[in-house]
Amino acid sequence: MKTVWLVNLDTIPYADALALQHRIVAARKRGALNDVLLLLEHPPVFTLGRNARAENIVASRETLQQLGIEVFRVERGGDVTYHGPGQLVGYPILDLRNFRFDVGWFVHSLEEVLIRALADFGIRGTRIEKLIGVWVDDTKIAQIGARIEDKITYHGFALNVNPNLAHFDLIVPCGIRDKGVTSMTRVLNAPIEMHAVRARVAARFGEVFGVELRTLTRKELEQKLAQG
Predict the structure, then answer these.
(1) Catalytic residue annotation
(2) How many domains does the chain have?
(3) Is the pLDDT of residue 131 over 80?
(4) What range does the domain containing 121 cover?
(5) Fewer C-beta within 10 Å: the chain N or C terminus?
């Protein structure tokens, strides 16, 4: 069975996580590193994908500064989305030659991971035809935006556990105007421990992708990057 290194990080700035992804991707392209899954949270940030429209951030620059929300334009697919505390972000950095080089399959698999993890908490997540992500009825509970370079994946998914949903009102989430956004806490009307969600997402990731997860610390990952 293939092995994926699981690295659980705390809340780290988006710029730091992006730089770390780039380093892992570069090492993975050289064949100097194993496949990796990063799980983490971010301080408040809006990210715009390659084809995102800047006007889909509806708040003024002054409002964003007052709220401490950063903005990044990045290389992933998709439009604008929000990351913040209370949202579990996953960055799978995988060589698809070890799996299946099919973008649709990869995105569908990420959706399946999240649908199964939500089911572990009694939440029925679904897909909506022609829309990427995971939904509860007509509201989005998980976002997916990936990038694939030389068959190496990065960026990934974000699951709304208990984020500040008011921050989504400052954007047109994923460029979709006629759908809402929700969270696990809102659906269940009860608090949820992030560590429990991390554990279920990791387990379901291993199940869907058919891999064994081996936990590494950030320090161990950095050591392996230095060696590669």
Answers:
(1) 174
(2) 1
(3) yes
(4) 2-227
(5) N
